[in-house]
Amino acid sequence: MPLEAIKQVSGRAVYLPGDDIDTDRITPARYLKVVTFDGLGEALFYDERFNPDGSEKPHPLNDPRFKGARIMLVGANFGCGSSREHAPQAIYRAGFRALVGESFAEIFFGNATTLSMPCVTAPKADIAALARAIEEDPNLIVTVDVERLEVRYADKAFKVNLPPTAQKALVEGRWDPIADLLEASDLIEEAHARLPRATLS
Length: 201
Description:
Layout: E1 8-11, E2 13-15, H1 23-26, H2 46-49, E3 71-73, H3 86-93, E4 98-101, H4 106-113, E5 119-121, H5 124-136, E6 142-145, E7 150-153, E8 156-159, H6 164-171, H7 177-183, H8 185-194
Parallel strand pairs: 2-3, 3-4, 4-5
Antiparallel strand pairs: 1-6, 6-7, 7-8
């Protein structure tokens, strides 16, 4: 049975400015020791959001106006650096369900897609306009339409890009390859049964 189809994501948004934000910043290295990803949302940008004593630093994710945002706006080459799966896991477990950016690192993009979290790309000017709009109205509802490949807010819309394979996987609920394998277990067993058996001489 297919997983949930991700045809669109709607909700409030938050803008994280800057290019080349790497996975070491998204999840500091000490959080790689976790046994499961449960609770990893608390590690999201931890060193940029908190002082050593635990007090908050000025950061968009600490701004109460953007608490509960489901869509993250980012710059170019987001998720670069080491290929740790913890980075998209932390973003997902912090409540985000879609990202809109100028570009994404390839491995980060793949890991995010297998979490059902679309990462769509758009021109810098369109992202900047949306960032200004949510700064003026933090309660603005933004929709990332995976089927139509567009982002909508207020009375505005702009086109976004998503590789066709990722788009198809999301809208058809086929974004987790492990789930696909488990679903096909009967077919795999049938194919295995048809294979010639090795004999010992």
